Amino acid sequence: MLNPNEEARFKQLLLYVTDNPRSVYALQIGGTTVHARFDTCYESDNGMEMDEPGYEEYWCIAFQDICSGKLFEISYHNLPEQVWDGMIQVI
What is the CATH number of the domain that holds 27? Predict the structure, then answer.
């Protein structure tokens, strides 16, 4: 279940990449374009204890950078400006 902060653009990205896991994506992050493949998605939290005010759970999408081979994660906290799958603009 997504938290309310994820309902807009992040939900659209999450649903798209899980439906198209073999695509190569172009993610525009901070003015730089990174070409990457979907690796996995998982739930995470903000590192606080569950009973602390401000505790939050959210989903992450892990991508693997095609050039470096390094994994990186995207959540609604660091959503790319744009994501493309070939000629299709995902977000």
Answer: 2.30.30
CB crowding 35-73: b at 16 or more within 10 Å, else e: ebebeebeeeeeeeeeeeeeeeebbbbebeeeeeeeebb
Q: What is the DSSP string of 38-55?
A: EEEEEEEE-SS-TTSTT-
Structural domain span for residue 62: 4-89
Q: How far apart are CA 22 and CA 47, in angstroms?
A: 31
Give the tens place of pLDDT for each residue, 45-81. Answer: 999 999 999 899 999 999 999 999 999 999 999 999 9
* 35 three-state secondary structure: strand
Contact 74, 87 (CB under 8 A): no
Farthest-apart Cα atoms in the chain, separation: 45
